[in-house]
Amino acid sequence: MSLSSQLRLLPRPFWVLVGATFVNRFGVFVVPFLTLFITRNGNTAAQAGYAAAAYSVGGFVAAALGGWLADRLGRNITMAVSSLAGAACMLAMSQAVDWRALAALAFLTGMINEAGGPASAALVQDLVPAEHRVIAFAVQRFAVNLAWSLGPATAGFLAEHSFFWLFVVDAATSAFFGVIAWLFLPRGRKTPREQAGWAYAWQSIRQNHAFLALFAACVCTAWIFRQTNTSFPLHFERSGLSLHLCGMVLALNGVMICLMEVPLASGLRQWPVKQVLALGYVLMGASFLVFLASGSLTGFVVMMIIFTVGEMSAFSRQQAYSASLAPDDMRGRYVGFLSFAWCAGNTASSAFGMALYDRHPTILWALNAALGVVAAVLILSSRKPWRE
After folding, report:
1. pLDDT value at 209 more than 70
2. Higher-pLDDT residue of 151, 128
3. Are the C-beta atoms of 65 and 58 separated by less than 8 Å?
4. How far is Cα 210 from Cα 122, in angstroms, rounded to an integer?
5. Distances from the Cα of 280 to the Cαs of 221, 277, 294, 312, 347, in angstroms?
6. pLDDT tens digits, one per residue of 115-127
């Protein structure tokens, strides 16, 4: 089946979700510039770091809250409430000055804004048949990465004139997404009250060994992925290369995803999903081994190409594979629980990966590669097979 034929089979509400997601992600203006906004209000860099970290901590709560709301209230209502309330939080944050107030509002904003994520993923699972989910998640990732490629440039232009407009546009795009979700997206599956709690879902999750293996694999890959935003730019600078070139190499990731991921997902559609997923994990981790041989610009480009091929092979399939493991009435909570893995991996990678880089960067590169292999082994050894 051709790529165009596969795309035509995706239902209309899915395309509405993709379009609204693009607008929403394009308008994520505040988070990339949050620490700069806080320091310009007279707070120290350390205080800005605490406030920015509060947003990430809010993501932990969002994983539990959003997963439960998605199953209990429905997908569109959860996304709408999350986006509209998040827009109000953004406007409130624009008026704060002291870092303590900013930290409290950042936590609240992160908790509310990110709570819509499980509902979005669960709605794709509701709308798209299992055999088309890999291509569907690839299309959604295309929209997100295209938005991330275009949005920061616009945000930088606005920031030069007024930081207040960053908050206004961010809030406006969130509100737009909320209205679209409320009016034009279906509710999706709704779980009865007596089966919507986390205790009920945990009974299922703890017996789902394949899903727990995926959870552990995601902790590993979250560690690896986070290194592209932490040790990678620092290693680039310490290698004597200009930082504007670092931005270009990092942008290569988004360009490759926008140009190649959807065709790649279509071309590999008949390949065994677990094997391709495992290969992607290995490539992501092994890409850092390039630094053992070269610290040149060419080495960084080669590393990013290998990493991105691995990411494209893994991430859309990871979402589809996760969907195949979740009971229909627990999709939101399963997505939310998997978000904990990413929060844990990102936090550990930021806290310990940078410290390890300062002392033994070669050990960090080897550890990244080893974690990729561990993630692959976890997936391949899981007992429950992929279900079409």
Report:
1. yes
2. 128
3. no
4. 19
5. 10, 5, 22, 7, 22
6. 999 999 999 999 9
For residues 122 and 211, membership in a common domain is answered with: no
End-to-end CA distance of the chain: 16
Q: Is 195 part of any domain?
A: no
d(CA 283, CA 6): 27
Which tokens in the block code for residue 293? 């041989």
- Number of C-beta neighbours around residue 139 at 10 A: 22
Residue 236 falls inside a structural domain: yes
The gap from C-alpha 140 to its chain's centroid, in whole angstroms, comes to 11
Helices and strands (H, E) in the chain, number of each type: 19, 0
Residue 40 structure tokens: 């310009």
Query: pLDDT tens digits for 224-257?
Result: 998 887 788 888 888 888 767 877 888 788 889 9
Would the pLDDT of 386 be above 60? Answer: no
Tokens 């493991």 appear where? Answer: 325
**Tokens describing residue 250:** 């990092």
- Tell me whether residue 298 is in a domain: yes
Let me know how long the chain is. Answer: 388
CATH of the domain at 121: 1.20.1250.20
User: Where among 141, 168, 190 does a domain terminate?
Assistant: 190
Residue 388 lies inside a defined structural domain of this protein: no
Go through 14-51 and write b for each residue having 16 or more CB atoms within 10 A of its CB, e for each that does not: bebbbebbbbbbbbbbbbebbbebbbeeebeeebbebb
Alpha-carbon span 334 to 66, nearest angstrom: 11
